[in-house]
Specification:
Blueprint lengths: L11 H5 L19 H11 L1 H10 L2 H20 L5 H36 L5 H18 L29
The chain binds zinc ion (ZN).
Length: 172
């Protein structure tokens, strides 16, 4: 058995799988050795052979995005074995629905106030009415922790994706 060269370290996938990282390794561009946990998570949830097959089936320019989304999903699934990233999605969907109702109610108020203003222009009554209404309906979502996810999500610090390969890597 020949000893492997130490000049260039194997990618995180080949290191994890204890195999030689050959030139053209499908994993090497997306699983650098500095991020061992990224591959470990993806392998645990999806399996290395499934990931290899998936990467071979898609265009090379889409592979990095695919790997990053797999890493994101795998990390979410590790943290929440029942819901995975669906847990975060449903929290955000409920939040969107609540905010949409909030917005509709506020727009309706605004319309009513505007039409009142046009008809009798008694401006002094609006701030009190508006404030009371916001205190009743508007304040409710702010105070019952509508924004907090049920678990800490380090990958959520980067909502735009950031275009870096460490997007899915949990930096604890
Ligand atoms: Zn490799």
């Amino acid at each position: 058995m020949a000893s492997s060269s130490t000049s260039n370290s194997p990618c995180a996938a080949c290191k994890f799988l204890r195999r030689k990282c050959l030139p053209g390794c499908i994993f090497a561009p997306y699983f650098p050795p500095e991020e061992p946990q990224k591959f470990a998570n993806v392998h645990k949830i999806f399996g290395a052979s499934n990931v290899s097959k998936l990467l071979n089936e898609i265009m090379p320019h889409q592979r990095e995005d695919a790997v990053n989304s797999l890493a994101y999903e795998a990390e979410a699934r590790m943290k929440d074995p029942v819901y995975g990233c669906v847990g975060a999605i449903s929290v955000l969907q409920r939040q969107v629905m609540r905010l949409q109702k909030e917005l509709d109610a506020t727009n309706a108020d605004l319309m009513r106030f505007t039409s009142n203003d046009m008809s009798n222009s008694s401006f002094s009554v609006f701030p009190g009415q508006y404030g009371a209404r916001m205190g009743h309906g508007g304040g409710s979502f702010d105070h019952n922790s509508g924004f907090s996810l049920p678990y800490a999500s380090p990958w959520n610090n980067n909502p735009t994706g950031g275009s870096s390969e460490e997007g899915g890597d949990g930096t604890m």
